Amino acid sequence: MAYVVPKESYNGKVLGVSFGKDSQTLNFGGENTLPFLSFEGEIPAKPVIAFEIQDIPPDDWPETLKAQYAAVSSDPVKWAMHCQNELKAQAIALRLIGTHPDRENRSAQDAAKTVKDVLAAINVPLIILGSNNVEKDASVLVAAAEAASGHNCIIGKAQEGNYKTIVAAALAHNHKLIAMSELDINLAKQLNILITQMGFNKENLITDPMCSALGYGLEYTYSVMERIRLAALMQNDATMQPPIAGDVGMYVWKIKEVSALEAEVPLWGKLEERGVAWEAVTASAMLIAGTNLLIMRHPKAIETVQKVIGELI
Amino acid sequence: MALSGVEIFKLLPKTNCKKCGFPTCLAFAMKLAQAGVELEKCPDVSEEAKRVLGEASAPPIRTFALGIGEKAVKMGGETVLFRHDKKFFNPCALALNLKDTLSDDEIAKLASEVSGSEMERVGQKLRVDAVSIEYASNDSRRYEAVVKLVAEKAPFTAIILVCKDAAAAETAVKAVASRKPLLYGAASDNADAMAAIAKAHKIPLGVCAEGLEALSSLTEKIKSLGVDDMVLDSGAKTAKEIIENNTQIRRSALKKNFKPLGYPIINFVLRADPAVESAIASVAIAKYSSIVVISSIEKWKNLALFTLRQNIYTDPQVPMQVEQKIYKVGEPAPESPLLITTNFSLTYFIVSGEVENSKVPTWLAVMDCEGLSVLTAWAAGKFTAAKISQFIKESGVEGQIGHKELIIPGQVAILSGALEDKLEGWKITVGPREANSIPTFLKQRK
Ligand code: B12
Ligand code: SF4
Hints:
The complex is a heterodimer of chains A (313) and B (446). Chain A is of the alpha/beta class. Chain A has a single domain (45-312), classed as Dihydropteroate synthase-like (TIM Barrel). Chain A has helices at 63-66, 76-86, 108-121, 134-147, 163-172, 185-197, 218-233, 248-252, 271-289, 299-312; strands spanning 16-19, 26-29, 48-54, 91-95, 126-129, 154-158, 176-180, 205-208, 244-247, 291-296. Chain B is of the alpha/beta class. Chain B has 17 helices and 17 strands. Chain B has helices at 5-11, 25-33, 47-57, 104-115, 140-153, 166-176, 191-201, 212-224, 239-256, 274-286, 299-312, 345-358, 374-379, 385-395, 397-400, 416-422, 438-445, and strands at residues 64-66, 73-75, 93-99, 119-121, 124-126, 130-134, 158-162, 182-186, 205-208, 230-233, 266-268, 291-294, 325-329, 338-342, 362-367, 405-408, 427-430. In chain B, helix 16 links the parallel strand 16 (405-408) and strand 17 (427-430). The longest helix of chain B is centred in the middle third of the chain and has 18 residues, at 239-256. The structure holds cobalamin (B12) and iron/sulfur cluster. Cobalamin sits between chains B (319, 339, 341, 344, 346-347, 350-351, 371-376, 378-380, 407-411, 431-432, 434-435, 438) and A (182-184, 187, 212, 216-217, 220).
């Protein structure tokens, strides 16, 4: 029996997105095959990893993670420069968590100023994330989009409850947009449709089907992503063709496995390594499922996943 | 691919003797094609027909066990490419690679570590399943001694013999034949000798070749030498080769019923940096590997890989769940606190673990919400005030405890008012949002 390479032919293609300015522009997406199967299609760009920074000190991060940025995390500008210059970040994701009503409830104006300051200090592409508070993001992200006008950023996340103002702002200021729904392929599809119906070009859109950490729902995210990819490629479903974002860090760094001391759980082994592995394994699984853009926190985990990407492309 | 009725008919005696209970051989063949009757019903069928038909009806990926006894790992038998299509059935084995050039002390220590690697997560016992012993000394007596040492120090662990020297392999296999080791490997230059060993000792054989074409012709040859249980190594080393080759193997087996690749896969993901190794191992776990061989088993790494394996291999249609009942944590007395949660395994094990940590004896009411987490169940209308109050009333807990206070998860604080209305005479207390605050919460109450 002769061996014949079992190739699939896909009639769809993942859309390519680029963000950032001038020589620092980054591309991701654009493949016409399932993740990393280059024997049956083209993979023009590598997945991108953005370092997450925040507008306020990360008091709620576990100690081992906080320690990585202790010297810079009191100031988002220093923090961003540290990621770009010292850690060689390809991209930075600024989370405006301080605007959350339960945190510092910072105003949209404060957020806009932070965005401006960070943009003035760096030249790598920037992702601007709200606090995930549906009402507050509706105004914060509008101000942030305006402050970043002309920088070709990615802003997000637009959700079912607030997408209108955010989409309009991304449209007005020429940004790319992350649309987030809750772990359901039909909800992801529906939100993309609503957003494109507002005249937003689907080629500027990124789907976040909602991430989850290893051991805490990862299997759901994994399968939703695989199904989105299959719909995009096999059924040529245009609404499922934007590249996929995985907001890994915020889900990983709040669970017990990344913060419980070894003395409390001797069977779990060293804490520092455990946290890094948790983020790296979660991110690697997301890549295999179809993620094109990862948002991560720990420098060692990012370095690890960059090595995996190096092996995958 | 199953055979058609006409293809099967060609293999039958064509005498229309009716002994099978069908009027003609063709009628019998048609029923066979639909798997509606057993081939044994025809007493005159030839050996050749049995072989061909048996093969055609065999599962597309051969199923067998690595090792023996309770901790043997079943492998193969998968039926889908994507877990959402049905489910992945047989979780891959994790194997620690050991070179026989290490000192006896190191080998004994590492083998004992594998043997003691078991941990519990979400009610499942998870462990490093195998030791893979690499023949690096070039000294067959040393190899045999090391194999015996590992077998002794890890008495229930599966053994993989990584040895391409037939003479050394034979001695080693004999030393642990009763443990049903996997002999790895047969390659193009030693296939006959290796096949003979595997056949004589009835053990599975690892087969390696560079690329899938060479690999398929090698497995066909080895099969013709009488070995049925094989494990495939396509030579994949990088993450890309692993995902591409493993995908091609799984697709060939499932979509083309290509028998030469219808076997479980082994991947060696050895890397110097343990964090990188855990990430590369993740690629193999997610994409179809049945045995993932790693070079170190730090506890943190095991925990991460066990968890990923568990996630990938859960049934996507049925969340893991526990029985609905009033659980006792510690030895609760009538005045001990009563907590309520849902029956999603993850939720139950996290919450009961934290209650245990508190050392406060507690009644834990676990309500059937079809295996959904607290907030998901609430959002889906399965963890509502009406349903909770009905459950509490019907559970009989009122007869067990001496108070009427129910502590609910902080995430559903919103239910407290409605619950006080529905559960007359009860006091509803809102607990913390996250389980890790439960110990402090319970201790402070006293
Ligand atoms: C995985 C997931 C799913 C899975 C289901 C997983 C499962 N088996 O439950 C799927 C994809 C099926 C799903 C579906 C839906 N989901 Co959902 N899902 C999640 C997700 C990502 C994780 C849930 C989880 O597993 N948590 C882990 C467990 C352990 O948490 P837990 O049970 O709450 O337990 C913790 C605490 O509550 C506490 N605790 C538990 N018990 C007790 C008891 C006491 C006494 C105390 C003190 C504490 C305590 O301890 C635990 C650890 O801290 C969350 C978002 C998130 N990241 O949290 C959304 C989430 C829960 N889902 C949500 C929704 C809306 C839904 C859907 C209705 C949406 C839809 N797509 O239709 C459906 C409903 C399902 C249905 N059958 O109809 C919302 C709920 C919103 C809200 N506030 O009401 C969430 C919060 C998403 C969001 N908005 O951000 N979901
Ligand atoms: S018993 Fe066998 S030979 Fe006789 S009719 Fe049936 S199939 Fe034909």
